[in-house]
Structure formats: structure tokens, C-alpha cells
Amino acid sequence: MAKKFLGVGVGFPVTVPNGAIAAAEYEESVRQSIWIILGTAKGERVMRPDFGCGIYDLVFEVNSPSTAGKVSQAVREALLLFEPRIDVLDVQVTPVSDSEGSKLLISIDYEVRATNNAFNLVYPFYLEMGAG
């Protein structure tokens, strides 16, 4: 079966329903892996300092089209390096300002290689409001 290549692992975040650690299987495992890659800053993991996404170097940038382009490139590079089970079809970054502050919505269209199923994931990235 093609889905077995996608694997089964511990779910993220770790939960223990019914006394057993919840697992993430197949496409859900891939989705959670993408979320972990995007949620990890480079240098955050001691034994894997190269793991993660470079978007956290941009957290104090101005919410602008230039920043959106930098974020898009950092996301593409991180997924290319750390998630071999997918092909990234598109990354779109939309600037949003609301009551919570300034954020970028990162929309990732990807295809799981083993099954040719296409998915979309939207990751919110919050920019810190600088003094200015």
C-alpha cells in the first residue's frame, strides 16, 4: 500500500487519550511534520541546529510585500530540505493586520508524492510590532 511510505508516528501535540499516546498516520503525519518544520526556528534544536524554518529571523520586519517574499522563500527552502514526502506546489503569503497585531498568513499548497493527493495548509506567522 502506497500510504505506508508516509509513516505513522507520535501525534503533535502529544496527547494521551484512553491511556495510549495518540498517533498521526499517513497524510496527517505529513501535515503535522510541515507544522513542526514551520514552527521551529533554526538553531532551536540543540542536536539539529540546521533544522527549522528561517521565518523567525524576520519576526521584527515590517509587514510589507518584501517581507512576504522573504517568508515565502524561507518556507519553500525549509520544506524542500526537511519534508521529502511532498512536492510544494505553491506558497502564498498574505499580510493581515487586525486587533491581534500584524501577521502573515502562509498558505502552502502541496502534493503528497506517494499518493498524489493535494492539500493546503495555512500557517499564521505573527510579526512583532516594533517601536517606531
Automatic annotation (TrEMBL):
Domain called IraD/Gp25-like: residue spans: 25-116
Native species: Floridaenema aerugineum BLCC-F46
Protein name: GPW/gp25 family protein
